[in-house]
Specification:
Blueprint lengths: L1 H15 L1 H4 L13 H26 L10 H31 L11 H6 L10 H16 L1 H10 L4 H19 L5 H23 L9 H26 L6 H28 L27
Helix pairs in contact: 1-4, 3-7, 3-8, 4-6, 4-9, 6-8, 8-11, 9-10, 10-11
Amino acid sequence: MGLALIQKTITYWLSEHPSIVNFRWSPTQSWGSTWSFVITAISVYIAAATTLHLLLILIIGRRRSVPLGPIPAVHSLAMALISAVIFVGILLSAAAEIRDTRWLWRRTKTTTPFQWLLCFPLGTRPSGRVFFWSYIFYHSRFLHLFRTFFTILRRRNLSFFRLFNHSILILMSFLWLEFSQSFQVIAILLTTFLYSVVYGYRFWTAIGLPSACFPFVVNCQVVLLGCNLVCHFGVFLFHFLKGGCNGIGAWGFNSVLNGAILLFFLKYYVKKYLIKRTPGPARDDNASSTHLSSVNFKDKDA
């Protein structure tokens, strides 16, 4: 009885609450839903990170680290919990949307829940449960930006790829909502699951507990990139075989950017783990996400 009540309560607050069911992405109802906002936010992020990096080099040099105390550990714990909530929320919401809209599929060529997860029917609008959690995921992307500043303060390290990666991932999350892009439900499920595991592991090591004897975070990233690649092929096939997927233009742009991230990652992975492998305990490079993630694979504190 108690377990059923807890399950019912969680389901209500994460998928049946009126604010979730009646969500609508629009410039007048959703904070941060305009092109001017996302472009300004990305520009401010790049300018702030670059300015801080240069000021610290001029004032205290490259080698002196700024102590952050427990702040990175608290951030990792918070991100792990937020990611877990988004994962459960969009999972329950996707199940509820499939249950409530299955009868409409007769008007389209959508035949299975898996097809719906990969390929929204043409004419899908950014409203309802899954888009609410996509909206929350979009805003959670801004919380990942703090890791850039942690890295600057600790290691005085700032690379073009880190700035590019974080900025592009915010833009892609915005495009998911703006164009009701197909594939986003699967992408958010995979990414938030990875985030909850990776940030949980970061918190684990940050409080002094033992780390894995292999590059745990990077291997998680490999799995995520592989899953994303397979799912992108699925969207491509559904689009041409089942009459079209909604937001396919944004999906194409998304695919190109994911391809760029994949090439950066493979170049780094081959160089570090296959060509220049050295004996001793493996150092875990804290990759963050793909498409889905924010990572600089060259730094521990990406």
